[in-house]
């Protein structure tokens, strides 16, 4: 009747942006991500106590109404699948700022999917957990898996689940997460991607070019080719942000610190280091480099006035249930 699960956030190297089915949350394009070691959510779900409604706490505070609505909707799906009518208490802790463009919904719904189904007595295979997590948040489907994961898109007939391309031991890269603003973002990814789909003249081109990006990225990851992975990750991020900027009204998640980090990454590259950036729907910049270069890169990023803090990550593990000790 109760269970705790941990899932890690991920960064998309090829981005998911846009849906073909909003209700079933099916992405319009495939995406490929790297799960991160130090960005995680730990979620406990308890069906034991008799409750009149679900109770949800994030970082010890009652969830805001918009978050509550998404979580209750997700728990309704868990109740439907497990044929229970009990309400539950959910307590979730993030190791990083919530809803600030750092994939808290990815680790959050992945941990919730695993913990809730386990607590309800119906543990899932990773593939089924991934398809369920996707209903909460598209990127959460990938956070079920450690290392590199791919979420197919584009087929409304199949409710997709992510697949693992390579585990967390395959390629010991470093990801530095440069936090330039830790307050919640003004527009959620969900709303922003819908606005883009409806109001950007470039949306069709985004969908058309996504398949090729995914194929190229998968092959580059599998041969551990950092130059290709990095260049394509930057391209996918800039293409997605360009798409958002071209919506009406245009969406800009960046701040001066975001731009300063991008420029410093370009400077480091000119100096000969293999360093690359990517940015999800928020102002934080995730910087990819070889492990041996991490101290140099970290020093340079921390010297920028727009960088409030830096989180150092390596590839992270799959979502898992925590046994009581
Ligand atoms: C920019 O997975 O948060 O991080 O499915 O509507 O919950 P919903 O969206 P979400 O969007 C992620 C967008 C992104 C790119 C990515 O992670 O692929």
Highlighted features:
eight-stranded mixed sheet, 14 strands, four-stranded antiparallel sheet, 2 domains, Ribosomal Protein S5, domain 2, Alpha-Beta Plaits, single chain, 325 residues, binds ligand DP6, 9 helices, alpha+beta
- The structural class is alpha+beta
CATH-derived architecture of the largest domain: 2-Layer Sandwich
What count of structural domains?
2
The total beta strand count reads 14
Give the overall shape, derived from the CA principal axes: globular
Hetero groups in this structure are: ligand DP6
Helix fraction bin:
25-40%
CATH class of the largest domain: Alpha Beta
Low-confidence stretches: none
CATH topology of the largest domain: Ribosomal Protein S5, domain 2
What is the arithmetic mean of pLDDT? 94
Give the termini separation: 17 Å
SSE topology sketch:
Blueprint lengths: L1 E13 L4 E3 L4 E2 L3 E16 L8 E4 L2 E2 L2 H18 L6 E6 L9 H16 L6 H11 L3 H4 L4 E4 L11 E4 L7 E6 L9 H11 L3 H20 L3 H20 L10 H15 L4 E4 L6 E5 L4 H9 L6 E5 L6 E3 L3
Parallel strand pairs: 5-7
Antiparallel strand pairs: 1-4, 1-14, 2-3, 4-7, 4-8, 5-6, 8-9, 10-12, 10-13, 11-12
Helix pairs in contact: 1-2, 2-3, 6-7
The structure holds ligand DP6.
Ligand DP6 binds next to helix 5.
Characterize this entry briefly.
The chain has 325 residues and is of the alpha+beta class. It is built from nine helices and 14 strands.
């Amino acid at each position: 009747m109760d269970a705790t699960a941990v899932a890690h956030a991920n960064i998309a190297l090829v981005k998911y942006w846009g849906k073909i089915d909003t209700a079933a949350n099916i992405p319009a394009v495939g995406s490929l991500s790297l799960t991160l070691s130090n960005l995680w959510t730990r979620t406990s779900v308890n069906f034991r106590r008799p409750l009149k409604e679900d109770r949800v706490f994030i970082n010890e505070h009652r969830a805001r109404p918009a978050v509550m609505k998404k979580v209750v909707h997700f728990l309704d799906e868990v109740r439907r699948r497990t044929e229970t009518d009990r309400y539950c208490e959910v307590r979730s802790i993030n190791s990083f700022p919530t809803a600030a463009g750092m994939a808290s919904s990815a680790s959050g719904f992945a941990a919730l999917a695993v913990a809730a189904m386990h607590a309800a007595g119906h543990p899932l295979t990773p593939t089924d957990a991934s398809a369920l997590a996707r209903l909460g948040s598209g990127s959460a489907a990938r956070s079920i898996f450690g290392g590199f994961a791919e979420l197919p898109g584009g087929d409304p007939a199949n409710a997709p689940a992510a697949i693992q391309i390579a585990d967390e031991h395959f390629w010991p890269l470093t990801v530095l997460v440069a936090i330039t603003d830790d307050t919640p973002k003004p527009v959620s990814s969900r709303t922003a991607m819908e606005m883009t789909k409806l109001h950007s003249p470039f949306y069709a081109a985004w969908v058309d070019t996504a398949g090729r990006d995914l194929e190229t990225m998968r092959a580059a990851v599998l041969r551990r080719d950092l130059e290709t992975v990095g260049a394509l990750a930057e391209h996918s991020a800039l293409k997605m942000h360009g798409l958002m900027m071209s919506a009406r009204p245009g969406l800009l998640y960046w701040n001066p610190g975001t731009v300063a980090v991008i420029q410093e990454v370009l400077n480091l590259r000119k100096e000969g280091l293999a360093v690359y950036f990517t940015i999800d729907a928020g102002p934080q910049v995730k910087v990819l480099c070889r492990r041996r270069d991490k101290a140099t890169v970290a020093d340079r990023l921390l010297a920028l006035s727009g960088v409030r803090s830096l989180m150092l990550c390596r590839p992270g593990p799959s979502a898992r249930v925590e046994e009581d000790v």
